[in-house]
């Protein structure tokens, strides 16, 4: 694209030549400047990788990575995690009938109860997740089916949602709020957790529904149109998403958690990267320093089964997990660090041998410049 | 019909637009173009469409345009902005650049076109703009003005009807050239009624044929012949003459200057060919990726519930679309999604690299020559890297290997040798007005000596500058002539100059006058020139000087025998020899010759041929007086340069028009031939040995040499035993006549056979000398080698007009800013002041340019492969829905901002081996020979590296996302976090990979590499820190900042970057110490060793 410039240069040259009145000779000296840059003599650091220079690096990497890896591995192992699939595929599973008899038109919710036992007590805060499998939240058609300006409280977008929301844009002639496939498919199972005491009494465990969404999402990215008051009035001229039971202004009684700033909704709107994913549902806060948050024992999970997944061969799970500084349980990181650290250490040894042999042949090989 | 024929290839001009009463029916003058120079390509109106059309004719731009259009038309995963913006940027920048250049051209055009000139109207000069000049106008030009168009000189203010011009801006020759008015034209131009008939415009600056018909009342029209000496070229400057009047014959775009500035054919470099090959591979990768994804998409959708699950229904439009159309658009969508694998920015970066990189050649002060006060000149930047790939150097001898600074050494008169006695103080030889000849053996007759010296003084076209204040010197087109005239001066015969056809010679104290009747010009085919003069006493003499081969057949045999030995001995000593002959013309002979010459000069058609015929006829039956030997000294460091080139594995061929002996001695002097080199000769002499038919002998010799060099070569043997007998060097000498026989053998089957044998012999010789070459043959040789097996890269270097053909033919043409005018420089790709600069140009600059651009190209493909591979892999996890992994901003900015500057800086500044080291070790050059860094193995290595990195990035993060709760508050990350993590790892790895490859860290490298990374981080924070009103989706809102809040993410990023670079760190260390890097290490070791011990 710049190739032609040189021809031009030449032509320019001949014009200036022919136009120079009286052939005024070019007196200007054409001697090139003697600058370091133009002479390509800028002072430069010239590193050369040799066995000698790389060797310590490998040892250092090995020595740093192996302890980190061990730390990560131990941390990950200390994280308690409990997972239970309540989809109801099996005849024996509690939610089988709910899953089987699911109908979009039924007005009553189907309830099912799953019992489970925690072998070990969960210390510190416990995080409750719901997990979905084979649910393509990262499908392109799905990912783009939202209107962020509507969710940001933009009035015009409320009444006239983005085209991207199709086919979940208008319903019965009214704009859908919130529009789009993501919002429409909001996960609406309700999970309740009970501790089953020895005497058989169910002890409901308080689940905190705040602090599950990103702070910035909750406070900046998602906003109710016209503030958090009078949501009913604001959403008057809109229609609820077709698959929803309740309109958006009835997601929660708490005005700080209602409408677009409902945290369950915000969490759902952050589309997952992979078809198997989990989303934070509730937090079980640690109450006293002496008692574990979830003592070992029997638990009951009450499920309001609203969310059909069998049609696309999906699965639903409930996950209880503690969290450490490195996040949730993930043994991969620790193992990877230990492996890489060991490899580096091993390579360091190999290089040392090579270096040693090389060294005997010619001395001073490792003197870097 | 004859008339119309003549009309077609000649034009008739009516001087002053006056119709000529006496002429045959007045033909209305055809419309000639006006004197407007239009070098600009565009006007305001056609700029946009024309420029766009030209830009989109480039295959790459067109491809990107298609991608862009697909994005606009089809519902594609990435917005049209992602590919439109870079394309738009490229197009706009190029358009602005070309527009600016065109504006400059317009400005220059205007300056020329509006330049005030004086045109004679009704006998009075009228001021006009230069562009208004029409063919037939009489134009007045004053001293030191340039001619506004091509003029026929009608009147000069000088008494002798001459004027002087310099053509410095045309061909760089700064000497004053004499031009003559048309003989016997009227002094009063008002009453002049004449037409000029001349050939149609043609670009040769030194050719012009025409004739002028002068009509006088009641008289037969007089006819005068017109030649180049009557033609004043546009662009030349009037010197030493107060004013002239001339009639415009060629104007505007039809002037010889304008015709000469029409483009050269574009040369393409090997790197560009490699790029195209790689592009094809990547295009295949792209297509197969798209195909795989499309297929899998439909397989996947066939599974129950996957095509349209309840949570993700299709729009009505999607449902309505025809299945096959849908498949097709899906395919296109995948193409668009993966199209970043072929980056627009690579073209931009490559162009920028070449453009900016070429400045370093011009800036290099080592190329500056204080004598001519100029440095190197770059005429094209497309071939920088080709300088590092040269396998064959074809060099001219005179002016290139040698200085073209002639010194008269000795002469031989009638077989007796004369050597100037005071050769040690040769420099002040000018001051010697009377130098006695030191006779070495015997002495020829005094008369013969004087005749010889007179011949030297008369037989030339040297001028003596008229300006008296100038120091005494001579001006001539050929330095040989000056040397001869100066030589004669040392012996007491001083040429005083030529005044109105009279040559004056100062002989001791007498002034001899000769009337110059005719000059039979020198031309390279005849290889001789003659003058016909008349002495005071009325004798007509012809003096002729020329190459021995062209003189010997024209003189008596016994004279030849006396002199031949001397000529050959001088030639072996490396001198240039010329033979001098003379002839007395009788009155009838002269009459005949005069008539013939005048007729031939008047001829409009085939004038050259006719003149040559007359010349040949006149220059016969002469008698040989003697011969001269002129030394042409070697260029500075010629031998070192040649040695370095040979050390670099470059084959050097000398192509010269000179005699074999002279050329051979030059080759020895340049150490192209060593003492132990066995010379294989394929010349007329060896062919005529043993009195056999030339053809048979040729066959025999070729086979013999082939056997020697190819079959028995130690190279072939070393494959079996590594320490065989020491290499025997061969030198091959071939001359023009033999070459013609090789190339144009009588039977076709032989031709290709001979050609092959010839090439194989040449390829196995260390040096090849081709002598007695015509310019066209030089080009033929270059072409032969260029098209031989393996298509080696050729470089031609020369300084004269006779080298232009080979300069244009070779891959790289180098012009030397020598003494033989500027034609070679003008037609070259690079011009350097001296031959010695070739060493640095190739070994240092060429090597570095090649390494830089090769790395640039490989790196670009690599970085885009590992950029797009994760996106491809992601399709397997998102239901083949064309969901991009990265945000549009990242997709767009990756190649433009985040990763472009470090590689550009690298490709401009990298010196993996220092310049001095490269110059010291010529062998390093052969390490990159044969396009070593852009062959398939390194390409595959880089591709595998890209694949490895891509896989690592994607699956590394995939494993991390095994548990989505990454921060310590239990919250989860989404798909954009996934992409951002991959992208961050990618940007860091790719940049650090380049950092690892950088061997020369200047502050610019530091600034750009760390700056790019910092910029990426800051940009990501900024981009995610604001709700952008113009974005429909705030995908990255606080994604980057949130990512940074997770310790696991940090750990995984560090791990992945390290793991990706591990092989990069490891490989150079484990690799055996070979290749340039290792060698430098070794070199440094030895250096440090000497320091320490």
From TrEMBL, chain A:
<dbReference type="Pfam" id="PF03381">
    <property type="entry name" value="CDC50"/>
</dbReference>
<keyword id="KW-0968">Cytoplasmic vesicle</keyword>
<keyword id="KW-0472">Membrane</keyword>
<dbReference type="InterPro" id="IPR005045">
    <property type="entry name" value="CDC50/LEM3_fam"/>
</dbReference>
<keyword id="KW-0812">Transmembrane</keyword>
<comment type="similarity">
    <text>Belongs to the CDC50/LEM3 family.</text>
</comment>
<feature type="region of interest" description="Disordered">
    <location>
        <begin position="1"/>
        <end position="26"/>
    </location>
</feature>
<keyword id="KW-1003">Cell membrane</keyword>
<keyword id="KW-0333">Golgi apparatus</keyword>
<protein>
    <recommendedName>
        <fullName>Cell cycle control protein</fullName>
    </recommendedName>
</protein>
<dbReference type="GO" id="GO:0005783">
    <property type="term" value="C:endoplasmic reticulum"/>
</dbReference>
<feature type="transmembrane region" description="Helical">
    <location>
        <begin position="48"/>
        <end position="74"/>
    </location>
</feature>
<feature type="compositionally biased region" description="Low complexity">
    <location>
        <begin position="16"/>
        <end position="25"/>
    </location>
</feature>
<dbReference type="GO" id="GO:0005794">
    <property type="term" value="C:Golgi apparatus"/>
</dbReference>
<keyword id="KW-0445">Lipid transport</keyword>
<dbReference type="GO" id="GO:0016324">
    <property type="term" value="C:apical plasma membrane"/>
</dbReference>
<keyword id="KW-0813">Transport</keyword>
<keyword id="KW-1133">Transmembrane helix</keyword>
<feature type="transmembrane region" description="Helical">
    <location>
        <begin position="332"/>
        <end position="354"/>
    </location>
</feature>
<dbReference type="GO" id="GO:0045332">
    <property type="term" value="P:phospholipid translocation"/>
</dbReference>
<keyword id="KW-0325">Glycoprotein</keyword>
<keyword id="KW-1015">Disulfide bond</keyword>
From TrEMBL, chain B:
<keyword id="KW-0967">Endosome</keyword>
<keyword id="KW-0067">ATP-binding</keyword>
<feature type="binding site">
    <location>
        <position position="657"/>
    </location>
    <ligand>
        <name>ATP</name>
    </ligand>
</feature>
<keyword id="KW-0547">Nucleotide-binding</keyword>
<feature type="binding site">
    <location>
        <position position="778"/>
    </location>
    <ligand>
        <name>ATP</name>
    </ligand>
</feature>
<dbReference type="Pfam" id="PF16212">
    <property type="entry name" value="PhoLip_ATPase_C"/>
</dbReference>
<feature type="binding site">
    <location>
        <position position="396"/>
    </location>
    <ligand>
        <name>ATP</name>
    </ligand>
</feature>
<feature type="transmembrane region" description="Helical">
    <location>
        <begin position="56"/>
        <end position="74"/>
    </location>
</feature>
<dbReference type="GO" id="GO:0005524">
    <property type="term" value="F:ATP binding"/>
</dbReference>
<dbReference type="InterPro" id="IPR023214">
    <property type="entry name" value="HAD_sf"/>
</dbReference>
<dbReference type="InterPro" id="IPR044492">
    <property type="entry name" value="P_typ_ATPase_HD_dom"/>
</dbReference>
<keyword id="KW-1278">Translocase</keyword>
<dbReference type="Pfam" id="PF16209">
    <property type="entry name" value="PhoLip_ATPase_N"/>
</dbReference>
<feature type="binding site">
    <location>
        <position position="803"/>
    </location>
    <ligand>
        <name>Mg(2+)</name>
    </ligand>
</feature>
<feature type="transmembrane region" description="Helical">
    <location>
        <begin position="939"/>
        <end position="961"/>
    </location>
</feature>
<dbReference type="GO" id="GO:0005789">
    <property type="term" value="C:endoplasmic reticulum membrane"/>
</dbReference>
<feature type="binding site">
    <location>
        <position position="481"/>
    </location>
    <ligand>
        <name>ATP</name>
    </ligand>
</feature>
<dbReference type="InterPro" id="IPR032631">
    <property type="entry name" value="P-type_ATPase_N"/>
</dbReference>
<feature type="binding site">
    <location>
        <position position="656"/>
    </location>
    <ligand>
        <name>ATP</name>
    </ligand>
</feature>
<dbReference type="GO" id="GO:0005769">
    <property type="term" value="C:early endosome"/>
</dbReference>
<dbReference type="InterPro" id="IPR059000">
    <property type="entry name" value="ATPase_P-type_domA"/>
</dbReference>
<feature type="transmembrane region" description="Helical">
    <location>
        <begin position="1050"/>
        <end position="1070"/>
    </location>
</feature>
């Amino acid at each position: 694209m710049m190739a032609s410039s040189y021809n031009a240069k030449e032509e320019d040259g001949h014009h200036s030549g022919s136009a120079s009145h009286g052939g005024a000779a070019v007196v200007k000296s054409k001697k090139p400047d003697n600058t370091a840059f133009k002479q390509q003599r800028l002072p430069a650091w010239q590193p050369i990788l040799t066995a000698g220079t790389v060797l310590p690096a490998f040892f250092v990497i090995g020595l740093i990575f192996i302890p980190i890896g061990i730390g990560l591995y131990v941390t990950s192992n200390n994280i308690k995690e409990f997972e239970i699939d309540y989809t109801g595929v099996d005849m024996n599973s509690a939610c089988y009938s709910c899953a089987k008899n699911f109908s979009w038109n039924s007005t009553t919710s189907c309830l099912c109860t799953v019992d489970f036992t925690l072998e070990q007590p969960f210390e510190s805060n416990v995080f409750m997740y719901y997990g979905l499998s084979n649910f393509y939240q990262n499908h392109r058609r799905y990912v783009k089916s939202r209107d962020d300006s509507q969710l940001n409280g933009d009035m015009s977008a409320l009444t006239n949602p983005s085209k991207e929301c199709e086919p979940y844009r208008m319903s019965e002639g009214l704009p859908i709020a919130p529009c789009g496939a993501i919002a429409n498919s909001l996960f609406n199972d309700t999970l309740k957790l009970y501790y089953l005491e020895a005497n058989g009494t169910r002890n409901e465990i308080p689940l905190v529904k705040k602090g599950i969404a990103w702070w910035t999402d909750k406070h900046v990215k998602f906003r109710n149109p016209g503030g958090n008051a009078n949501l009913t009035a604001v959403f008057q001229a809109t229609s609820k998403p077709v698959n929803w039971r309740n309109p958006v202004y009835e997601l929660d009684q708490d005005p700080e958690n209602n409408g677009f700033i409902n945290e369950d909704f915000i969490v759902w709107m952050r589309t997952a990267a992979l078809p198997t994913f989990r989303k934070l549902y509730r937090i079980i806060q640690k109450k006293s320093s002496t008692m574990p948050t979830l003592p070992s024992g029997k638990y009951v999970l009450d499920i309001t089964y609203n969310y059909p997944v069998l049609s696309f061969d999906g699965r639903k799970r409930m996950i209880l997990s503690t969290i450490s500084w490195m996040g949730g349980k993930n043994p991969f990181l620790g193992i990877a660090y230990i492996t890489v650290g060991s490899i580096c250490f091993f390579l360091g040894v190999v290089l040392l041998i090579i270096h040693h042999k090389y060294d005997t042949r010619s001395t001073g090989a490792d003197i870097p410049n | 019909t004859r008339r119309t024929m003549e009309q077609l290839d000649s034009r008739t001009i009516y001087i002053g637009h006056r119709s000529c009463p006496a002429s045959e029916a007045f033909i209305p003058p055809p419309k000639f173009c006006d004197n407007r120079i239009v070098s600009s390509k565009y006007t305001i109106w056609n700029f946009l469409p024309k420029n766009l059309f030209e830009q989109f004719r480039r295959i790459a731009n067109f491809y990107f345009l298609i991608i862009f259009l697909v994005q606009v038309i089809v519902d594609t995963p990435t917005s049209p902005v992602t590919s439109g913006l870079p394309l738009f940027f490229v197009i706009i920048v190029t358009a602005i650049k070309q527009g600016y250049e065109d504006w400059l051209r317009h400005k220059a055009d205007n300056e020329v076109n509006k330049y005030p000139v004086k045109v004679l109207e009704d006998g009075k000069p009228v001021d006009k703009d230069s562009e208004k000049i029409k063919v037939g106008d009489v134009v007045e030009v004053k001293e030191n003005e340039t001619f506004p168009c091509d003029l026929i000189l009608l009147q000069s203010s000088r008494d002798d009807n001459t004027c002087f011009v310099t053509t410095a801006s045309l061909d760089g020759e700064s000497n004053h050239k004499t031009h003559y008015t048309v003989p016997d034209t009227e002094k009063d131009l008002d009453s002049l009624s004449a037409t000029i008939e001349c050939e149609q415009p043609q670009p040769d600056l030194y050719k012009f044929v025409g004739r002028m018909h002068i009509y006088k009342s009641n008289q037969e029209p007089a006819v005068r012949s017109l030649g180049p000496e009557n033609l004043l070229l546009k662009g030349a400057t009037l010197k030493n003459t107060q004013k002239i009047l001339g009639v415009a014959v060629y104007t505007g775009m039809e002037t010889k200057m304008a015709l000469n500035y029409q483009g050269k054919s574009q040369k393409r470099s090997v790197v560009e060919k490699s790029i195209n090959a790689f592009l094809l591979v990547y295009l295949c990768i792209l297509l197969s990726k798209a195909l795989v994804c499309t297929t899998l998409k439909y397989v996947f959708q066939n599974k129950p519930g996957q095509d349209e699950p309840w949570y993700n229904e299709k729009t009505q439009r999607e449902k309505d679309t025809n299945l096959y159309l849908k498949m097709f658009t899906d395919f296109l969508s995948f193409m668009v999604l993966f199209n970043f694998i072929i980056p627009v920015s690579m073209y931009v970066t490559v162009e920028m690299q070449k453009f900016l990189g070429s400045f370093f050649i011009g800036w290099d002060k080592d190329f500056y020559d204080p004598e001519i006060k100029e440095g190197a000149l770059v005429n094209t930047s497309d071939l920088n890297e080709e300088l590092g790939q040269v396998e064959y150097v074809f060099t001219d001898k005179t002016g290139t290997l040698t200085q073209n600074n002639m010194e008269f050494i000795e002469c031989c008169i009638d077989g007796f040798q004369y050597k100037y006695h005071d050769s040690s103080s040769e420099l002040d030889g000018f001051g010697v007005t009377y130098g006695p000849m030191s006779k070495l053996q015997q002495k020829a007759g005094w008369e013969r000596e004087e005749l010889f010296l007179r011949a030297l003084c008369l037989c030339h076209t040297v001028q003596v500058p008229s300006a008296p204040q100038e120091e005494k010197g001579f001006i001539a087109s050929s330095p040989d002539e000056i040397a001869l005239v100066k030589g004669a001066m040392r012996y007491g015969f001083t040429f005083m100059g030529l005044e109105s056809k009279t040559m004056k010679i100062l002989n001791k104290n007498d002034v001899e006058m000769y009337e110059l009747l005719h000059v039979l010009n020198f031309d390279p085919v005849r290889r001789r020139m003659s003058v016909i003069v008349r002495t005071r006493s009325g004798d007509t003499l012809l003096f002729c000087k020329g190459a021995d081969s062209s003189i010997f057949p024209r003189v008596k045999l016994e004279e030849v025998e006396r002199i031949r030995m001397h000529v050959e001995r001088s030639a072996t000593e490396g001198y240039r020899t010329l033979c001098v002959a003379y002839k007395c013309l009788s009155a009838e002979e002269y009459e005949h010759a005069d008539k013939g010459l005048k007729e031939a000069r008047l001829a409009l058609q085939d004038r050259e041929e006719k003149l040559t015929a007359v010349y040949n006829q006149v220059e016969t039956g002469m008698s040989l007086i003697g011969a001269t030997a002129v030394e042409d000294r070697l260029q500075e460091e010629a031998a070192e340069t040649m040695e370095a080139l040979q050390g670099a594995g470059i084959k050097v061929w000398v192509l010269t028009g000179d005699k074999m002996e002279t050329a051979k001695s030059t080759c020895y002097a340049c150490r192209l031939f060593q003492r132990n080199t066995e010379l294989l000769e394929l010349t007329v002499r060896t062919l005529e040995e043993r009195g056999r038919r030339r053809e048979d002998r040729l066959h025999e010799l070729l086979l013999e040499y082939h056997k020697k060099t190819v079959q028995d070569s130690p190279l072939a043997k070393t494959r079996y035993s590594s320490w065989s007998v020491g290499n025997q060097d061969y030198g091959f000498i071939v001359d023009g006549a033999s070459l013609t026989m090789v190339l144009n053998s009588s039977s076709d089957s032989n031709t290709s056979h001979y050609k092959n044998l010839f090439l194989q012999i040449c390829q196995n010789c260390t040096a090849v000398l081709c002598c007695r070459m015509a310019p066209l043959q030089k080009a033929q040789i270059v072409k032969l080698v260029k098209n031989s097996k393996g298509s080696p890269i050729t470089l031609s270097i020369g300084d004269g007009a006779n080298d232009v053909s080979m300069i244009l033919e070779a891959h790289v043409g180098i012009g030397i800013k020598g003494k033989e005018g500027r034609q070679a420089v003008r037609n070259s790709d690079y011009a350097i002041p001296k031959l010695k600069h070739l060493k640095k140009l190739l070994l240092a600059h060429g090597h570095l340019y090649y390494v830089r651009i090769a790395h640039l190209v490989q790196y670009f493909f690599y970085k885009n492969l590992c950029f797009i591979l994760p996106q491809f892999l992601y399709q397997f996890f998102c239901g083949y829905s064309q969901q991009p992994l990265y945000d549009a901003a990242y997709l767009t900015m990756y190649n433009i901002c985040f990763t472009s500057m470090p590689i550009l800086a690298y490709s401009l500044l990298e010196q993996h081996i220092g310049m001095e080291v490269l110059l010291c070790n010529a062998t390093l050059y052969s390490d990159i020979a044969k396009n070593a860094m852009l062959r398939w193995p390194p390409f595959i290595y880089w591709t595998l590296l890209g694949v490895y990195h891509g896989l690592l990035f994607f699956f590394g993060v995939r494993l991390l996302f095994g548990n989505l709760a990454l921060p310590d508050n239990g919250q989860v990350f989404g798909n954009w976090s996934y992409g951002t993590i991959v992208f961050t790892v990618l940007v860091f790895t790719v940049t650090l990979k380049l950092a690892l490859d950088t061997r020369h860290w200047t502050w610019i490298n530091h600034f750009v590499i760390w700056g790019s990374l910092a910029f990426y981080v800051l940009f990501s924070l900024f981009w995610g820190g604001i709700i952008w009103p113009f974005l429909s989706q705030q995908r990255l809102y606080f994604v980057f900042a949130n990512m940074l809040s997770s310790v696991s993410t940090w750990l995984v990023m560090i791990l992945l970057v390290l793991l990706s670079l591990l092989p990069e760190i490891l490989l150079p260390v484990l690799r055996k110490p070979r290749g340039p890097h290792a060698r430098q290490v070794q070199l440094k070791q030895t250096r440090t060793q000497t320091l320490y011990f």
